[in-house]
Each structure stands twice: as C-alpha cells, then as structure tokens.
Amino acid sequence: MKALVLAGGYATRLRPLTDTWSKELLPVGGRPIIDWILDAIAEVDAIDQVHVVTNARKAPAFLAWAGTRGGDVEVHDDGTTSNEDRLGAIGDLRFVIDRAAIDDDMLVIAGDNMFDFSLAEYVAFWNGKRERIGAASAVAVRDVGAIDIARRMGIVELADDGRVTAFVEKPDDPPSTLAATATYLFDRAHVALVAGYLDAGNPNDQPGRYVAWLQEREPVYGWVFDEGWYDIGDAEQLLVADNDLRARRGLPQRDTYSPDA
To answer: Which CATH number belongs to the domain containing residue 238 in this structure?
Structure first.
C-alpha cells in the first residue's frame, strides 16, 4: 500500500501566517502537523512508500523537512505557484499516481487533517470488507453532532453494513450529522478510476467529491470513529489543536497561536 499526504493548497484562510509558512509544517504541540500524521501512518505495516505532494512555492520547505527524516518520505512538486493555478486535491492525487506510477492500494490524507484514531484499526475494518466483497474503498467519518456544523462539511449516510449510500458536500439540509474526514482508503481498482473521473470534467478539488462520485458506482464504506479530530482550516482551529497537543506534552497553554516553540 502507498500513502499520500495532500499538501498542495495555499491555506488562504490562515494568511498572513501562511505567506511565510506551509500550513502542514506549522508546529502544533511543538511539532509540525505533518509529523503527527506520519506517526499515524507508521502504524500501518502494509504501507511501503509515503508520498507528499505540494506546490512550487512550498516545495523547498518540504524538501528541507524531508531531509531531516532519513529518506522515509518522497516529496512531489506539482509545479503550481498560486491559488489560481493549483491542481486541486484530486488533481494532485492524479499527479502523484502518474508521476510515481502507482498501481496499488492507497491511503490518502489531507495534510491539515489530524486525528487520534488508529489507522491500523481503520485499515483492518477496510480489509474486512474487502475480504467479503472484493474491491472496496473507505472513508473515516465522525458524528459532529450538530446540523449547523454539518452544513459546512461533507455529509454521508450509511447503510446498516456501513456502506455509504449518499454523500453530499456542504448541504443546506444535511441528511445526517456524520461528517466525512479527509482520510481515505482506496482500493487499487478505484485508484485507477481517478483519471477517468477528471477526464470527464468533474471537479478537481475537495477529495470528498471523488468519494461522492465513486460511491455511486463502487462499494465505499464509512468507518465511524469518536476519537479526537482536527480539521485545521482557520486560526481558531489551529489554536485549539495546538493547545490540546501542548497539554498532552506538558507545554504551557497559549491565548494566541505562534509558530515559535
């Protein structure tokens, strides 16, 4: 299995901080966000390659970071330089599939998506489904508990066996409060469908849109977790995540976020 961390966006909601910092390299709890994600990926024995995709503006910082990790991750520069010419998350997924010639199962995680659940348990759930039905993909979902929050997220409906029966982005009238998080497991047969999805003119951003398209054609299952989860899209969530992780490490709390230690 291959793992891919998506880090090609421009984090405009965190400017001016992200004019000089790559969001995924911002310290949370005293460590870069992406290091926490790679710790979780390391729990999955089946993963034999880890890829990170970023843009031309952020690539030097990511290459410097990767140089401190002893060669356990490959960084890909998608060549874009602005929010206007970005490939989008699904475009970046295709870029890495093509560039690295990936013909394998894939774990795909957004680089600003932090969580406390076990990826090994998630993978075990997914493999259990595949043993019974063959090719299947999965998405990690969490009940956000409130309709007003659900309106801002990708929302799923699940059958009794966990199969996704509906997936809608930011609905005005959410059918449930089960939110899809940006942590996906794609069967290799479904990895091969990404190019066709994009060639048909479908949206190239927000990876959940590919899952929404896929679940109408192929088996996709929702794995429900209730552990901690941070979708670090703005300054408020960044501060919450930083203070939570700082508390775990015995570091003092902050009233405002700073990338300084």
So the answer is: 3.90.550.10
Q: How confident is the model at residue 194 (pLDDT cuts 50, 70, 90)?
A: very high
> By residue range, what is the domain housing residue 243?
2-135+182-205+230-248
Cα-flanking dihedrals φ and ψ of residue 190, to 5°?
A: -85, -25
Q: Is the dihedral of CA 167, 172, 175, 176 positive or negative?
A: positive
The pTM for the full model equals 0.93
Average pLDDT, stretch 99-124? 95
Using DSSP, state whether 169 is helix, strand or coil.
strand
Res 136 pLDDT > 90:
yes
Report the relative pairing of strands 74-77 and 49-54 from DSSP bridges.
parallel
Residue with tokens 């680089």: 111
Asked whether residue 213 is domain-assigned, the answer is no
Would residue 80 count as lying in a domain? Answer: yes
